[in-house]
Amino acid sequence: ADMGAKLLCLFLASALVAYYIYTPMPEDFEEPWKVMLITAAFRAVAHLAEVVDQLGLMHHMEALKLISAIEYIAPMSDENVTVMDTEFSNVAVRLYLPRKLSDKLRRAVVYFHGGGWCVGQAGMKSYDHLTRWTSYRLNAVVVSVNYRLAPKYRFPVQFEDAYSVTKFFLQSSVLSQYGVDPDRVCVAGDSAGGNLAAAVAQQLLQDSEVKTKLKAQALLYPALQTLDLNLPSYQENENKPILPRLLMVKFWSEYFTSDSSLKEAMASNRHVPVESSHLFQFVNWSNLLPEELKKGYAYTSPAYGSSELAQKYPGFLDPRAAPLLASDAQLRGLPLTYILTCRHDVLRDDGVMYAGRLRAVGVPVMHDHAKDAFHGAMMFVSSPAELAVGHRLLNGYIGWLNENL
């Protein structure tokens, strides 16, 4: 009987693990088992972080930060690239300088990592791989920015760190110190980092102190708006890998405050006060999305929230946090733009709408829409969780920079 009990326990444990790992995958995913394992690992960490938070041991986001701590690697130079940690304008950055001698000035990329403004860092293995590879492939100086994170720091700190590094780097004395061509500098970032890159590019247009113009911006599955968290992509991909809807809501709300009333209002999509209703035109997906992304969804006018929330946390209505809220006039002078969106991503429609709005005001846009990819897929290019789709997205991004920067 003892043996039977052990077998039963083993069977139940296996069933539980299988249930945990097995998630139905869209039929167009390559390597579905790998994606399932990655998803299960992320889900396990997210559940653990929630438990730790509910027990009052540690803030949910501080617990999630442990991932980036485990993934951290010290700055290591190799035969192609010199890597060092330093500070620009009192903000920590990781610098990648190509070793290959160059008779002409180099290109440069200022990169902002993702992680919902709460987690992640330039020294994570996946980001170090991405930025090192960028530096080597493009023979470019790469500045990877360690902006300060929530919950300790709230908006606009993340934006201000990103902005002050970029502004510092764009000074002609700094560019010449690193042998950078002032006509070939770009900002780039993924997810929350794509949000920061877009906001930095917009702000530079309004800053008369900055003489150097950006050549390009590259936004990889960026988060661009806080107003409507029920876009078709939010509904369709509510439980897709890496970034389920409620985690994105949590990231957005934590960017501004730990006050759970904002999180709850955002989760039910009732956070925008009626006096800000004029902003909805900038994110009205019934006008801004192509037909194939609208099918099966009916646009409903937003339910308005309390004015009090917006007065307490005005950040969520600020274009520096939500670049899609900039007016057409503010978008007009933006540089050449690359936008990557993934079909199975809550943030897909943010990127699609931004691409459309930029094109409409005459900004040259390359919009790369990956029909078989999910949020964050590009992070999985260094072992052990290598994904073929991650390599394809990375090569598309680097290839575009190589041709356009």
TrEMBL record:
Transmembrane segments: none annotated. It comes from Thalassarche chlororhynchos. The keyword Cell membrane does not apply. Gene3D superfamilies: alpha/beta hydrolase (3.40.50.1820). Residues 109-268, 315-378 form the Alpha/beta hydrolase fold-3 domain. The active site is at S191, D345, H375. The gene is Aadac. GO terms for cellular component: membrane. This is AAAD deacetylase. GO terms for molecular function: carboxylic ester hydrolase activity.
